[in-house]
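Quick question: what would this complex look like in 3D?
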Amino acid sequence: MFFEFLFLVSIVAGFIGVMSGMGGGVILIPVLTFFGMEIKHAIAISIVSVIATSSGSASAYVRDHITNLKVGMFLEMFTIVGALVGAAITLISGRRFLFILFGIVLLSSWIALFRQRSEGWHQTTHQDLFSRWLQLQGKYYDQSIRQTIEYRGIRAYLGGPSMFVAGMIAGLLGIGAGALKVLIHDLVMGLPPKVSTTTSNLIIGVTALAGTSVYLAAGMIDPGLAAPVILGVVLGATIGTHLLVRMTNQTVRRFFLMVLLILGVEMILRGIVSS
Amino acid sequence: MGYPMQGSTNHPQKEESVGHFDMEVLVGYILLAGVLISVASLAIGLIWHWARWGNLRFEYSIVGMNFFEFLLTILGQMASAVMRPRFFLNMGIGILMLTPFVRVLASVFYFAFVERNWRYTLFTGFVLTVLTYSLFLR
């Protein structure tokens, strides 16, 4: 029964991940550990499924010419090294540390998501020398307002190191850490919301691969367990995306965000009581 | 994959790249193909196993192997009929892991030979080197 159950739980995780904008791993890990899976194994399995969901969504965005490949490639240099370091830390960490850190990261991503994003983006007129050297500018066609939007990425010298931390958290906890990456793109690098979301999606796939390779080498990826999880998460995310296109209602998103708030608090509490 | 928020239609800025090699479209299709083949392979493996044994119980782990040894194991399993469901599962995971890797590999070639941008050739080269190194970990 366990494997069928794993499949169903993963569908739900993928679905809520899309509906809340948080990603599947953030729901998958608390649920898998709740049903008795060792947290390190849940992290290892989750990070493989992150490759699938992020590559799936990135494929559509990249073809729409919204993703900025240069911003992505530059920042990937930092996230993959971060992910390797993060995954190595997980292998030597205790359960309590992982549970509490997971809860803290979940709650802070929660705050990041609750913030209103789409408003408040302004075109930056001044680009610092380093970001200009990196050619971090671009444009995309926005279908909703039928306009080509030009933008310049800024503060790459801060964005890079911040993305190292984001990559480390992704590798450590087996999640995409998309909320954190988007926050860095928005606030530090001044990218327009659509560009930050889609570019972060592209980065997540490569970052998750770096983390996965560490867990694979440690013998923690069990294909028999990973397969139903990957299939379930992808299926749930696909259903979620199709539903989401038809909905503009914020209350639905708020509802799913409430679920995540509970999960975050629950993870911290379990970390505190666990030995 | 069913993730698009909007359809892939022709956008104005595409016209500029007429006659050029469209890297974004290639990257998009690499990712899409990788995920689709991987998911199909995993589904075949699970369904095959379920049809034969009536459950999804599939316990085995890959211990002490780096990714490239894992790929060799997959090729070995292809030959044996008994291992076939397991072969499909392993292949699904192998292809999934290769997907971002191939994407980065294609980017290196693009920046080196199409755009001739040495800066980004270097950056993507670094990403490729770190990924290759990490896949050799054991």
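Answer marked as accepted. The CA atoms of residues 16 and 124 of chain B lie 24 Å apart.
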